[in-house]
Amino acid sequence: MTKSLLHRLIAGLLTMTMVLLPALEAQAASARIKDIVDFEGVRENQLVGYGLVVGLNGTGDSLNNSPFTKQSLQSMLERLGVNTAGENVRTANVAAVMVTANLPPFATQGSRMDVSVAALGDSDSLQGGTLLVTPLLGADGEVYAIAQGPVSINGFKAEGDAATIISGVPTTGRISSGALIEREIDFHLGSQTSLRLALRNPDLTTARRIALAVNDFIGTPTATPEDPATVRLTLPYGFNGNIVDLLTDIEQLMVQTDQTAKIVIDENSGIIVMGKDVRVSSVAVAQSNLTVTIAENPTVVQPNPLSLGVTAVEPNTNLNANLSESALSVVNESVSLQELVDGLNALGISPRDLIAILQAIKATGALQAEIEVL
């Protein structure tokens, strides 16, 4: 291989690398359409029911404190042919529970789903219990599933005369495949000719990019952005398949997502999360801390001999106040999130002080971001 040919080959590889790197960076910042939108009609439905868990080892509801448990137990026994009218029912092996579940989309009659169980009364633990037949109702009041089975919990409670140990939450549990679906949701996805895509993070730019990606792939105007949260998809004329085939074709398309500049603050835990587009103009920041220390050192005073005095305790309080102030520091205008973080970290402040500083910077108009406090 000649030296000139080798130089041309190296130059070609360098040029190809320079062309591919921006494409790879853009690809790394992109996401599939199926990961950023929800398809209309493809959704879960919440179900709820009230039932009884039996077989508890003395950890159930106390019937005197939970009248609904006693009434439910008597009603169930009467339906089974056991007459308990006028009888004083005493048992600690039964607990009233609320049963919740999410009906999967397009679940067929006869299939199973998981359910969650939570104690309603003063039961100590659901360990070892079995849920009796419990209808699960939808928002329309119709029964969509029937739940029954042994309850599995991820906690325990052990107690003695002078100590108690509790791990996890023993009054909640789960029944894997514990509900049998009895009613289906009447929605035929394949027969639709138009469908909406709902963005999980609404944004005008992202909605338009989704529509452009779909239209470029199909080759005809198929997707239309209606608002920041919705893109309407219409089955094109002459398409070889139904709407399900169209969704299957486009859900793998890569779209570069966009978002508004936002700072999320959790004041309870002191957590701060910043988006990559957060910017700040040049500002000067000063911060001071006031620390107050109170120490109690009481003194015991004994009476003189042969006196009629009594032993007394005199209070002795040491009170100190320390005010530490920082000089006025300048946070330069940032062009990237890393520069902003470096500038704020240079102040040497705690996260909770940083929360107050960010809110003050926002009040001055120097912070180009939205602050959301949880």
TrEMBL record:
A family per Pfam: FlgI
Chief site of localization: other
Subcellular location: Bacterial flagellum basal body
Keywords: Bacterial flagellum, Cell projection, Cilium, Flagellum, Periplasm, Signal
Gene Ontology CC: bacterial-type flagellum basal body, distal rod, P ring; outer membrane-bounded periplasmic space
InterPro entries: Flag_FlgI
GO biological process: bacterial-type flagellum-dependent cell motility
Endpoints of the signal sequence: 1-28
Gene Ontology MF terms: structural molecule activity
Quaternary structure (record): The basal body constitutes a major portion of the flagellar organelle and consists of four rings (L,P,S, and M) mounted on a central rod.
The protein's role, per its UniProt record: Assembles around the rod to form the L-ring and probably protects the motor/basal body from shearing forces during rotation.
Family: Belongs to the FlgI family.
Protein name in UniProt: Flagellar P-ring protein
Protein's organism: Devosia ginsengisoli
